[in-house]
Amino acid sequence: MSVTSDTAASGQSPALSLRREAEGAASALPPLLVAAEHLAATVQMGAHGRRRAGSGEEFWQYRPAHAGDELRFVDWRRSARSDSQYVRQREWQLAQSVHLWVDDAASMRFTGAESGRNARVTKSERARVLGLALAVLMVRGGERVGLTGPLAPPRPGRAQLMELAGLLSREAGVQDYGAPEIAGVTPQSRVVLLSDFFGDLGPIEAALGRLADRGVSGVMMQVLDPDEEDFPYDGRTIFQSMTGSLIHETRKAGDLRSRYLDRLAARRDQLARLARSAGWQFSTHHTGDPAQAALLWLYSALERGR
Predict the structure, then answer these.
(1) What is the Cα–Cα distance from 174 to 108, expressed in whole angstroms?
(2) Which of 109, 170, 199, 301 could share a disulfide with 281, CB 3.0–4.6 Å?
(3) Contact 305, 281 (CB under 8 A)
(4) What is the structure's pLDDT at 96?
(5) Is 192 within 8 Å of 101 (Cβ atoms)?
(6) Contacts of residue 251, Cβ cutoff 8 Å, sequence gap at least 6
(7) Hey, what's the torsion of the CAs at 240, 241, 244, 246, to 10 degrees?
(8) d(Cα 124, Cα 147) in Å, to the nearest integer?
(9) Distance between CA 158 and CA 241 in Å, rounded?
(10) What does the alpha-carbon distance between residue 219 and residue 8 come to, in Å, rounded to a whole number?
(11) Three-class secondary structure of residue 74 per DSSP
């Protein structure tokens, strides 16, 4: 008796067939999730730092029994191998919630003048992939991840990553500048804010104050294009917001550079002060720099703020 599979009949090896199946499955994933998982894979993380004695499921260690320990916690098999009694401890596992806000305002669509193969990603593209790559790392570490708004409450697992990828891949908003929606943030959780923070800082300050009152810790990362940092403009220039609602024309753009840089530095100092007052951490990332360094900072900053 002989059996001929469809794979053999078509002349394909099992390995080739499996590879094509895998490629087909991968092609169905949201492109943002593919990019985020690729970025997460380039950042090697150490131990997650959640290990301590408690009421978890996993065995952690034996320790000598102390006065006051209940007999039901004594591991008699381990104790029989010595003259002392030992208690079997389990690992305490507390999955915490992490909420993401990735600014989807029109200002985040800006990118510098480079074109073709050397074109930089937009601020929005970089912020979205950083946010989702961080979610990938958090989920791998056993955490629950969601958005700051009500659309995606924090949950564990790959299905949640798919949900977040879909929500973060939506079209950008119609407003020039954004402000975080924090209605979905749970008390004692952690929050990540990714934005250029070019709008009115009043809503940012108010949000940080309300979150601090809930015992929420977090990080803020300002995502900028290198042109916004260097201001490489001279001569006649028309400055226009991404929605076209704000327009300024000048014949001597170079004369504005020093004032612009002073205001940018003042804005950054103000953001850093707001973060410190809430017990948060703040950093700036440029889209011309590698994303890996920004992701590593975000992950480490969240861990320091636990």
Answers:
(1) 11
(2) 301
(3) yes
(4) 80
(5) yes
(6) 235, 236
(7) -80
(8) 16
(9) 37
(10) 55
(11) strand
DSSP secondary structure string for all residues of 263-305:
HHHHHHHHHHHHHHHTT-EEEEEETTS-HHHHHHHHHHHHHHT
Give the pairing of strands 86-91 and 53-64: antiparallel
| Separation between Cα atoms, residue 102 and residue 196, nearest integer Å | 10
- Would you state the structure tokens that stand for residue 293, as one six-digit string? 């360094």
178 close to 199: Cβ distance less than 8 angstroms: yes
Give one word for 215, left, alpha or beta, with left for phi > 0 and alpha for psi -120 to 50.
left
Q: Which pair of tokens denotes residue 105?
A: 């305002």
User: pLDDT tens track of the chain, all 306 residues?
Assistant: 333 334 444 455 655 655 455 444 444 567 899 999 999 988 865 434 444 444 444 555 677 887 777 777 788 888 888 888 887 766 444 568 999 999 999 999 999 866 555 678 999 999 999 999 999 999 988 899 999 999 999 999 999 999 999 999 988 778 999 999 999 999 999 999 999 999 999 999 999 999 999 999 999 999 999 999 999 999 999 988 888 888 989 999 999 999 999 999 999 999 999 999 999 999 999 999 999 999 999 999 988 766
d(CA 31, CA 13): 29
CA distance 286 to 291: 9
Strand 97-102 with 237-240, pairing: unpaired
N-term to C-term CA, the chain: 64
Model pTM score: 0.76
Task: Tell me whether strands 97-102 and 144-147 are parallel, antiparallel or unpaired.
Answer: parallel
